[in-house]
Amino acid sequence: MDHAVDRRLASLRVIMCLTFDRRAAPQEIAAAKAAIIACQSVLHSVELSGTFDFMFEAEVADMATYNAQLSLCAEPMARLVSRYEANFVCKRFIRRDKPDRAVWVPHNGGMKRIDCKALDKVSAEGDYMRVHSASKSWMIHSTMAAVSDRLGCDDFIQLHRSLIVRRGFIDELIHGGRNWTAVLSDGTEERIAKSNVPAILHMLRNGSTSDGPTLST
């Protein structure tokens, strides 16, 4: 397979698995591997241990091109390869990486990455957000909606429109009259918006009871 493939026209992927003849000279096998790796139609190649010794994925325009290139390799393959198996790719599954759950804050004239797991709370101050982590805080130019999207919804709770807190940062929920108040680990108390109370209680009651806040009346 020694012809370059136009990536815009190619529509066929083939994965070839090879077992080299144990009687073949090691230098000839090494040369064959090097030629396969250098071929412009080969996308990936790996050495194996097991049923096969070598595997590569190639890209060709169509079946006719594949057969033509395979015929060119027939003679050297017959001398060096005791077994080969071709598999054609019909469907490819690509994993999507999870979004980066972190915020970038000003630090020493530059920027510093703070992992969302290390955040305690985020409070709105005008057109800025104050990010709190381990008794430190930073101001960033953002919106509550943008920060909420970055944090994700699993570990953080929005108490009211100006404050988001990490679930584990809530020590106690106090119910007095018609109001609910959250007591945070830093000693501060925050009133919970009435519209948010049902969702917050449901989230906390259905979470871990070992590290969740205490509910008080």
Description:
The protein has 217 residues and is of the alpha+beta class. It folds into two domains: 12-88, Alpha-Beta Plaits; 102-216, OB fold (Dihydrolipoamide Acetyltransferase, E2P). The protein is built from four helices and 15 strands. It has helices at 26-38, 63-80, 144-151, 197-205; strands at 12-20, 42-47, 54-60, 81-88, 102-107, 110-115, 121-125, 128-133, 136-141, 156-160, 163-166, 170-176, 179-184, 189-191, 214-216. The strands form four sheets. A five-stranded antiparallel beta sheet has the order 9-8-7-11-10, with helices on one face. A four-stranded antiparallel beta sheet has the order 2-3-1-4, covered by helices on one side. It is elongated, with a radius of gyration of 30 Å.
Task: Tell me what portion of residues adopts beta-strand conformation.
Answer: 35-45%
**Which structural category fits the helices and strands?**
alpha+beta
The share of residues in helices is 10-25%
Distance between the termini: 76 Å
The largest beta-sheet arranges its strands as: 9-8-7-11-10
Average pLDDT level:
84
Considering the protein shown, what is the CATH homologous superfamily of the largest domain?
LytTr DNA-binding domain
Q: Rough shape?
A: elongated
- According to CATH, the fold-level topology of the largest domain is OB fold (Dihydrolipoamide Acetyltransferase, E2P)
Gyration radius over CA: 30 Å
Order of helices and strands, N to C?
Answer: EHEEHEEEEEEHEEEEEHE
InterPro entries: LytTR_DNA-bd_dom (IPR007492)
Domain HTH LytTR-type: 103-206
Pfam family, one: LytTR
Protein name: LytTR family transcriptional regulator
